Amino acid sequence: MSETKSENVYSVKEVATMCHVSNETIRRWIRSQGLNAYNNISGLAIKIVESDLREFSESLKIYVDWNAVKK
After folding, report:
1. Distance CA 19, CA 56 (A)
2. Does the global pTM surpass 0.90?
3. For a FRET experiment, which of 4, 10, 14, 48 has its CA 20 to 30 Å from that of 56?
4. Does residue 68 belong to any structural domain of this protein?
5. Is residue 30 domain-resident?
6. What is the pLDDT of residue 4?
C-alpha cells in the first residue's frame, strides 16, 4: 500500500517572497511562463503546489529560498 504525503501549498505572496520577486511577477509566470496554479475552493485565492514550483524553478534555473516562509 502506498502512502500519500501531503504537499505544501503556497500563496502568490509566499512564492514571491521565496523567489525574491514581486507578486505580479508570480502572476505573470502563471499566465505566460507555465507555472501551474490553482484557485482555492472559494475561487478567490491562487495557490501553488510545492512540486509544481520545484519543477518550474528547476526548468528555468530560478532560485527559490525554501526557508523564506514557514510551513
Report:
1. 12
2. no
3. 4
4. no
5. yes
6. 54
